[in-house]
Amino acid sequence: MLNCETSFIEQGTHEVRVRVIAGSKKGIELRGGHGPFFRPTQQLVKGSIFDTIGFEVEGASILDLFAGSGAVGIEALSRGASRAVFVAQDHRSLKALRTNLERCRFGRETADVRIGDAVRYVERAAAAGERFDIVFADPPYAAKTAAQRVVDAAGTAAGPLCRVLVIEHGSPVFAAEGGALELFKARRFGQTTISYFRYRKEADGGEGKDRPLPGDV
Asked: pTM of this prediction?
């Protein structure tokens, strides 16, 4: 397990601050959003995600849905991802996201911020045949259908949306039986579950067959 810094909350402001765990921006403190409904990915969870898919990140294109303060996408960029698209809607989270990108000196050529509904964005991207290497999604737990809609959009995409889809969720999510996606790993942290999906070999047309996916023997 990576050495994960402990996140903390400033009493009275509910502003969560975390640090970049590894890579070129290691140790940089990131701003969080404000308010009791802001739920960033915990450092322990973030460390576990990158322990699982870390070798996929170098040179990868990233889609960070429900990006919040951008901690997951920024971690990926710090570890060598070539580009990240961040999709967020809440104005407080967007302010924190932009501050964090400036703090880490990631410019527009590397970090692309999209303002809007993350589910609608991924549904349009999937229908249009857009492609990323890794897609992260961490929807608010109150939006109970959002995580499943992301999985459904990826599973019915015009072509493989990504190599690896990582969903952080509270309610169960499922890939359609016999569909394009398959769950290859899941890990639970209290009320949080991290599920990892990939495309079945017959669904991805053999793309990347010379490069093993997480979970391959």
From this structure: 0.84
